[in-house]
Amino acid sequence: MFTVSTVNVNGLRAADRKGYRAWLAGTDADVVCLQEVRAEPEQLAPEVLNPEGWHAHWAPAAAKGRAGVAVLSRTAPDAVRIGFGSAGFDASGRWLEVDLPDVTVVSLYLPSGEVDTDRQEEKERFMAELLPHLVDLRKRSADEGREVLVCGDWNIAHREADLRNWRANRKKAGFLPEERAWLDRVLGDEGGYTDVVRALHPEAEGPYSWWSYRGRAFDNDAGWRIDYHVATAGLAGRAVEARVERAEDHASRWSDHAPVTVRYADA
């Protein structure tokens, strides 16, 4: 089996104090993708920067204290690439590709946006630039006999089943019609990718992966499913199990997101 976990850590230094390192020590994943690291490598404890048994690669944001992604793998990558050829976003700490045997794994942190603000315009620009790269990456990888897996915080709930209170959020960033339509393109004939967790659980509500710290969202499971495994068809067809590693209770959380873990059968 090939097991991959993805999680937005909501600030890795804070997550480490709350239990991230213990989770990492106990995971059986072969690859772990992190988003919203919000730290320069030199700000991380040595045991976090280079954890024993892992090959860790980091893509911090040029804007200090923002974004930042990483990929940790048990096997050393053949190649590592930061960004996707965008002059505006390659230094933003939102895209990191690693080539492992037969599969390219990506850690993605798509901007969250906010309606009628510059943040939403940034999100829309990012999406517009990313889709052609996703298409090109899939085609190039197919020519090389490789699969692609894009893991991360996509900051879009695709369907009504992907958030508990969808009616109240129809005009909010993360569930806007144009954002959902863009994901339709990624997951349709144009992009050619598959939402792995949804394919395994086509009728399920959720499973949610993010809950606001406000109110009792976590206790009431009033969450959003915005952390995805998005894969090319061959790899998606090998997915056998998906789970959200939801904390036992509010006090046990080390992020406002939970790891999303998928097991893939070997080719």
From TrEMBL:
Swiss-Prot/TrEMBL site (Interaction with DNA substrate) positions: H257
S-adenosyl-L-methionine in keyword set: no
UniProt cross-references to Pfam families, sorted A to Z: Exo_endo_phos
InterPro entries tied to this protein: AP_endonuc_1, Endo/exonu/phosph_ase_sf, Endo/exonuclease/phosphatase, ExoIII-like
Keywords: Hydrolase, Magnesium, Manganese, Metal-binding
Cofactor field: Mg(2+); Mn(2+)
Cofactor note: Probably binds two magnesium or manganese ions per subunit.
SUPFAM superfamilies: DNase I-like (SSF56219)
Binding-site positions, Mg(2+): N8, E36, D153, N155, D256, H257
Site keyed Important for catalytic activity: positions: D227
Active site, renumbered: Y109, D153 (proton donor/acceptor), H257 (proton acceptor)
GO molecular function: double-stranded DNA 3'-5' DNA exonuclease activity; metal ion binding
Domain Endonuclease/exonuclease/phosphatase, residue spans: 6-257
EC numbers, comma separated: 3.1.11.2
Site (Transition state stabilizer): N155
Tagged with keyword Manganese: yes
Gene Ontology process terms (BP): DNA repair
Family: Belongs to the DNA repair enzymes AP/ExoA family.
Name of protein: Exodeoxyribonuclease III
Organism (species): Streptomyces alkaliphilus
